[in-house]
Amino acid sequence: FNSAATVSGYFDAGFGRDVTWDIDLVGGYNHVSLPRAKSEKHENLKPNWKLLRKLASAEMDVLWVHGYMSANTWLASAIAKSKNAAVLIREEQGNIEPSSTVKKLVKRALLPPLFSSIGGLYIGENSRKFFRHYGVPDNRLFHAHYCVDNDFFRSRLQELSPRRADLRASFGIRDTAPVILFSGKLIDKKRPQLLLEAFHKVSSATECHLLVAGDGPLRNC
Question: What predicted TM-score, i.e. pTM, was given to this entire model?
């Protein structure tokens, strides 16, 4: 790993609090965290020569990188291609965020060459369109779902199902109407205001309830 800054816990600016994991994120397989890996912030334009030397001497079938805004991504991809290894780039970005004309021109010039022979790992429709926009064909696009601990949620469901009515009542819900749950950061990017507008329209026509599980700067708005 070139970055393992969030493995043991980190401060999440969106939530405004420290976040720690209750499961081992890297157990169960061989891995190496490079010397800079504990630093949360890396200089995107500065190559990590220890990382690149390790990749140059390694045997690999696949190189998986996250994002493209780093010199290490470009150099590591070149190393992998020289070894005839496949390169997978996982990207969450879509073309829905505001972007200046200069940024658009830079992306149009630089991303097609980088994406010309990689496999794109997209998380949703917007990121799939992002890859397609910059030249990655459908046969090299793969849906990379977010992962959750399904066993944990199944066990909690079995444990809490007998208390369903009491749990609903603890939120002031004493009927059987559907409950809509929002779970996420209360920030502009997540559009919680749009959710409230939609809920207002839906609840005017159909009896339902809205629960918000999250935190952030918009909590008190």
Answer: 0.73
